[in-house]
């Protein structure tokens, strides 16, 4: 809940290109750094001041006939204080919906085909669970960054497959290695997610929770490494003029590339730290 | 400007005469210069014939039926009625809507379990986003409007597993939006404009690597993953308020090109929605209004 | 008559006073429901003509209680602090679903508020006419009967007969002649109530 005057103040501020914390409309807050491998029992994990992401991999049968691979992301946000934090059940469902859809699509970056080791029958399923520790606004973007970091940290056991027989009698036997592991393929190509919040007639990035309450349209854009949008979803109760869309996507592009670059450095640094530990 | 009741007011914009009639004549339109024709001979910016009617479910406050290609959608609207006490959050800001999209177990080739699937949740959420901007909910404090959509026939959305989710959304969301808005208008719920949905497929020419679009893709066009000499790379579903020209819903996925191409695709959908609104939606509403008298 | 559909442009915002069934977006007035356009000339000079869209659908649109609308409902239960009503009619239009409303003890009548006992004003089963004073809390509308023409309009006695009001605070059973306490409404001629 936000009072009318507070809302007017924020909308006026955005119009004047001056936000409550001194930023301009297209300025983001300094990005939070991650700690990889914080959860030893998970296949991969990432921790920041606000989020904890755990990745677990499991072997499953392919349910769809003819499927190449099946990658299932369950993003579950568990927060006992969600009412105080201002996150609604609906938006959590929306976010997990978006994340799993993006990662499962062709544009998601991950090489899903490589996760399927017995053709058409058995594959790895990747489960991603997100725990929100503190809510500082702009949850989807930071959440996806954390998921991206956790997936970069994920190791799946090597599987050796033996094929016997031919034709209808063809059968496969597979053996999961205990020690040997490999990294996920295509982690580097996972896009960055940028959400633009339309407040009044302008849009901002990386809003605070209060600013989020003033926004009537949210445009979530995934930006690939090539700097091209690869998913655009509109949320929120308002409508948007097509002419404004172009501006929004343009800003998303700029910010998305910056975020990707920063993520690369961050993951590099963490990986170095982890290898030094060993 | 005095309103002359004897004169039928013409539309504010003019369009190519009935894009739907062009369909019945088998000659492909020469306008499709961008590509070799589509599987069903339509031009790139031609929509399929769409059938829409209202007043199908008698008990509901308003209802609509929309059929396009093999997709058949029934929508029933109930309310306004009191908000259930458990759902009340901030009643001074006006009413709320609840959307429930259901795929019939027999909608596709393979029987769907009765349990709600993620695809249905996603359809409901996207429908909610697309409808919300059009409704004047501030006039309905403390009340709720229930929108129930049953997809009777879904053109087998489960037959292409790698992208089953994407395809069901891109194929089904547009008719759901159109049907829901029609049913809301039929229920006399106040709205700024009826929302019309339209999908668009994005294809890549394998030799030149250039992207191009096709409006209102059929299941076949998405499933075969090639069309008009291109490979299917992405899709886009847009909900539009045609008179005001604003976008209420937008879902784009896949390899959708740069900003310029995205904007072109959205604009094409907006134009297609304006056509559907003028030719089908408006007519269905006027017909049902006159049938009553 | 031409029928308009939602989103149809009816005129400029400066030309008309946009009434029922229309919506102003920017500089224009659009229809917001399916119906026929009617313009009413303003009676006083200098005022804009009124434009409205009359719905074509004959079936009654279910109505929603608003602040200051007169509603009719049935008393469901009473307790020392309030009487709970199920609102069945708003103005002269029946609701599709029943809304819940409460009459708090201080809103029963305009005078001697401190002496009111709910049980001497309403009993379960009474039909009451009341005014909406607030949208209330998440459950109920807040209603008031603090006007002469508001209060119990129909009540049955313990013996099961329809009672006749004999004063502002009493009703009598025609068969047993037993007198029961109610907050009676001033009888209003049929048709008059809707104009209030």
| Assembly context of the chains | heterotrimer
Structural class per helix/strand content of chain A?
Answer: alpha+beta
Order of helices and strands of chain A: HEEEHHEEHEEEEHEEH
Per the CATH scheme, the topology name of chain A is Ribosomal Protein S5, domain 2
Keywords (chain C): Cytoplasm, Exosome
GO molecular function, one term (chain C): RNA binding
Organism (chain C): Rhizoclosmatium globosum
GO biological process, one term (chain C): RNA processing
Folded structure, characterized:
Chain A: This is Ribosomal RNA-processing protein 42. Chain A: One of its GO terms (biological process) is nuclear polyadenylation-dependent rRNA catabolic process. The complex is a heterotrimer of chains A (278), B (293) and C (196). By secondary structure, chain A is α+β, with helices and mostly antiparallel strands. Chain A has a single domain, classed as Ribosomal Protein S5, domain 2, CATH 3.30.230. Chain A contains six helices and eleven strands. Chain A has helices spanning 4-15, 82-85, 89-104, 139-152, 209-214, 242-277, and strands at residues 35-36, 44-47, 51-61, 116-118, 122-132, 155-164, 171-183, 192-199, 202-205, 217-223, 229-235. The longest helix of chain A is centred in the last third of the chain and has 36 residues, at 242-277. In chain A, 40% of the residues are buried. The model of chain A is unreliable at 64-84 (pLDDT under 50). In chain B, helix 2 (118-131) crosses helix 3 and helix 3 (164-186) packs parallel to helix 5. In chain B, the strands form two sheets. A five-stranded mixed β-sheet of chain B has the order 1-2-3-5-4. Chain B has a single domain, classed as 2-Layer Sandwich (Ribosomal Protein S5, domain 2), CATH 3.30.230.70. The longest helix of chain B has 34 residues, at 259-292. Chain B has 293 residues and is of the alpha+beta class. Chain B has helices at residues 19-24, 118-131, 164-186, 219-223, 259-292; strands at 50-54, 62-68, 71-82, 96-103, 143-154, 196-204, 211-215, 226-227, 230-241, 246-254. With 196 residues, chain C is mostly beta strands. Chain C folds into two domains: 3-55, RNA polymerase II/Efflux pump adaptor protein, barrel-sandwich hybrid domain (OB fold (Dihydrolipoamide Acetyltransferase, E2P)); 70-181, Beta Barrel (OB fold (Dihydrolipoamide Acetyltransferase, E2P)). Helix content of chain C is 0%, strand content 43%. Chain C has no helices and 16 strands. In chain C, the strands form four sheets. In chain C, strands 8-9-10-12-11 form a five-stranded mixed barrel. In chain C, strands 1-6-7-3 form a four-stranded mixed β-sheet, with no helix packed on it. In chain C, a hairpin with a 6-residue loop joins strand 11 and strand 12 (141-144). The model of chain C has no long low-confidence stretch (mean pLDDT 86). Classes of the chains: A alpha+beta (278), B alpha+beta (293), C mainly beta (196). The B-C interface holds B 1, 3, 5, 8-9, 12, 61, 79-83, 85, 88, 91-92, 136, 140-143, 185-186, 188-194, 241-244, 277, 281-282, 285-286, 288-290, 292-293 and C 1-3, 5-12, 15, 21, 23, 25, 30, 32-35, 37, 39, 55-58, 61-62, 64, 66, 96-100, 135, 138-139, 141.
